[in-house]
Design brief:
By secondary structure, the protein is α/β, with parallel strands linked by helices. The protein has one domain: UDP N-Acetylglucosamine Acyltransferase, domain 1, CATH 2.160.10. 20% of the residues lie in helices and 24% in strands. The protein contains two helices and 17 strands. The protein has a six-stranded parallel sheet, with no helix packed on it. Strands 2-5-8-13-16 form a five-stranded parallel sheet. The two termini are 25 Å apart. Pfam families: Hexapep.
Amino acid sequence: MRIDSPEFSAMSERVLEVTALTSRLNALPFEDEVGKAELFEQILGRPLAPRVTIYPPFYTDHGLNLDIAERVFINQGCTFLDYAGIRLATRVMIAPKVTFITGGHPVDPADRRVWLTGEPIDVEENVWIGAGATILPGVTIGRDSVIAAGAVVADDVPAQSLVTGGKATVQRTW
């Protein structure tokens, strides 16, 4: 999406709206279930599925592209940058401070301030994502997998797999 497009302007307005909503959500008393439910409905554009547990603080930049199935658990301090869509299937468990990123910019310096890129993230059933993990654009995490704490997931994860590691490496220079 071009950054100077009407679509980008509309998305930017939504980001500001959702930032205000999540700020209100994160300031509510922990036991205010009714207030949290109302704010989540405004953030997601629909009510939360049954038996979803989300501990604040909770952050998202768009909300309308975040699909949370039943029996999902999201611990505190997680961030969902859902520009291109994030789907969490049933029984997904997410530890504190996990980050999901669906948007980005081109690598070429001349294009970085012109384009916004994005690919969806799909987390299949019964996945456990450890504390501080980062899930990058375009990733599918297969059923029953475990993502270790601190892992950076840039590629698809097969079902019933354990993924670890987060060491950055130089791929090229320019």
